[in-house]
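Let us work through a complete example step by step.
Step 1: write down the sequence.
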Amino acid sequence: MKKSEDLNEFGAALALANIEMSNPKATSSNPFFKSTYADLAECINVSRPVLSKHGLSVVQTPSYDMGIVTVETMLLHSSGQWIMGEISAPADKATAQGIGS
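Step 2: predict the structure and record it as tokens.
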């Protein structure tokens, strides 16, 4: 994880957002496992308004290099404070579908 030098305003805003945020509803189903889950759209619909209210936003940037897909996620505050993390994994195939999956 990387972060801005100071996190005081960021931390205060995130704490307030966490108080207001509810869990996303499991509105999608997986017939293979006979289960329900909260899909990405539901997670965004629940979190974006509350994060925005407190000056927080999420930015994700994907990259691909030598068979490895990396997604960098940054949580930003209107003060300029931020935290960032990334995750990498090998792509199934060197195709748009393989990289996207």
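Step 3: interpret the result. DSSP finds three helices and six strands in the chain.
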